Amino acid sequence: MKLWISAAQAAAVLAISVGGSNLAAQDRLELVNAFWQAESASEREDAAIALASAAADAQALYRWLRLGPEYSSDVARGVVSGSRTADDGTVFPYVILVPEAYDPANSYPVEFMLHGGVGRPRPEEGESFWRGGYDNLMRDDRLVVVPLAWNEAIWWQSAQAENLVEILRAVRQDYHIDDNRVTLTGVSDGGTGAWFFAFKQPSEWAAFLPYIAHPGVLRSPQSGGGYRLYFENLLGKPFYIVSGENDRLYPAASLASFIEILEQQNVEHTFRIIEGGGHNTQWLPEEMPAIEAFKAAHVRDPFPDQIQWVTESSEQFNEYNWVRVDALEEEGRPSLLQVSREGNAFSVTARGVSQFTLRFNPEEVNLEDPLLVSVNGRVVHTGTVRQRKETVLESAHKLDRAALYTATLQVDLTQ
What we know:
alpha/beta, 3 domains
């Protein structure tokens, strides 16, 4: 594949100070590109070792990865089919709809579209995931990703929680995307899937658009869920919710209690009731201008000043953006972590959490100065934290250039 780099990107890389390193700009770019396009864990590890060896320090490595790779103009366009094989051997097909005029000099928003009908068996080879084909989903101004779910791999299970993040990573490998403009839209069961990611794994997404769906489905073990829903986790996550007045499965009135909780929790949302509407998307053309305006108005902040997260597990669905819950006082019991940041001061409320990690971005926090961290009114840390190359590389696993960090602080409340 022929690689391409813009003059602006080359100039930016040439301007990087690497603390005395004499490595040429193009050589640095090739190292970043090798890491970005690694096709296996071993290739990625080799590329990471080469990057760490070449960079003078963590700050230099951060700047290299923040700029990203050499985006190629020689990429597939139109309807691009792909697949991912999970560790257990399950193959997850997907389709990427890429504008014919795709230009790697520009960064593109990405929209994931989750289909309904996940109770059906896996489609036959070559069968469209999206009813009616992909023509109506193609856009000139963005990439659209259409993954596949079926009765043995529904949207609100852990396999898909991993799958969607890995598909997004694959998209980032080949296409220049805007990491802070990745939205999640779903229809019917796909809308329930959008609710799932909002409640359990929201870090990648700028906004959620569940259509003709119901979050209550996630509570039912019979539906493949059985989850506890913590509305505290929805703070700072914008929603565009559409429901038909006469929907035979999820009439708009059945969402009333959920919408009331969103209002009580001050969760930003638009709730559109389609008068006389059923379980369909016939309303979509008329609603599209408002939907597009909503997407354009909402950009992800990967390092918000205020975070709250509730989890009953320290191993799954235990992190949000720059915080991670590492241990609970009692596994299976809902536990709360609230963090408020003002400059280099961090105020934490922890209930049921015994260990957690804060992750720091050098453009958000002045890591040259001491940090002050207090938990439940008690100071637990005063001082600087070390910026490490290994930390940068760990944060770069998802290839999310907007969500890199150079330092972490683990707090153990049992000591």
